[in-house]
Design brief:
Layout (H helix, E strand, L loop, with lengths): L9 H16 L7 H7 L1 H11 L4 H10 L4 H12 L17 E6 L32 H16 L11 H7 L27 H9 L3 H15 L5 E14 L12 E20 L5 E13 L3 H15 L10 H7 L2 H9 L6 H23 L1
Antiparallel strand pairs: 1-2, 2-3, 3-4
Length: about 375
Amino acid sequence: MAYVAVKGGAEAIEESIRRLKYERVKSGAGADASQIEQGMRLLVDQVMSEGSLYDPSLAALAIKQGEGSMEEAVFLLRSYRSTLPRSYYSNTVNSTDMDVERRISAAFKDIPQGQILGTSYDYVHRLLDFDLLQEREEELKQYVEEFLQEECHKERADLRLPKVSDYLRKEGLLPPVTHDERPPKDATKQMLSFPAQRSERLQILSRGMTQAVTALGYASLRGYGVVHPTVGELRIGMLPISIPDPMQPDTYEDSYYIGEIKVTEVESLIPVTKLNANGEKELEFKIGYGITMGQNETKAIAMSILDTCLESEDKSFAVNDEEFVLYHIDSVEATGFISHLKLPHYVTFQSKLNSMRKTKKVQADEKEI
């Protein structure tokens, strides 16, 4: 959408911008971007996920510039992302190569090579900790040193772990994987069309608003959909990223390692009834998939629910409708369109007023006759 700028008011706009900076720094000290990056990692992860750009320092800068507003930070990061050249497409990653930091299953108590609780707020009391108001830098440094010393004395295990779904598939409880060899569509470079490929849906869900994806997933659980899964596996860790050798693009062994990113991956198990070869009904599981940049467990679980919903042929529920879901979860699209209502609509509103006045005048004249 494009809007013609309103003439005049330049001085008022400049004053508004000047006051915006004052509100950010009026305490005499601005928030340090490095402190935001280090101390608000979950917020940084959320901005990176919705901004579709993995760069913690830039996400922290966007949070600082937007004064903590998620919608503003995501908009800033997306805008910066649009200026960057795309030099390469990375190789397809396999999450079994993940250096796992957290790995849990709601379906099984015992899974191959065990569960790893890792870092999570799931096991703490949701009570305000007023001691945080008196945190001292010396005490924090001492805690970090003691923690790292303790970690150094622990035996380092191989944290590249098998998937729970592979374990189920070997038992015949999951159907074999059908590989889709079609090249994935890049949702950031091609217009969305329906029906969408699953690769498109997963991209849009992964960069969708956390609260919107969560709300629609919750709607499915509450009866406005039919998907109520069990989390087969949730894993968080660092995934290695590589790009192909330009001279030998088909040879994976000659690829160049360029770094790693933290992701949250979820595979949910959904029971479905299928007909076997004898025409008899039998129960099997299908997998709903969710993945996000950084640590964002709720969104990844909700994404796995919506992935399954959008695969359904039953479109009687709104959460099963591709257009309804995919067009309404994007942060920049949604907040931008709502926010544009604040902009001048003088001409269109005056047109409506004139129409109303003419109608009322005609009605008044008819009554006089």
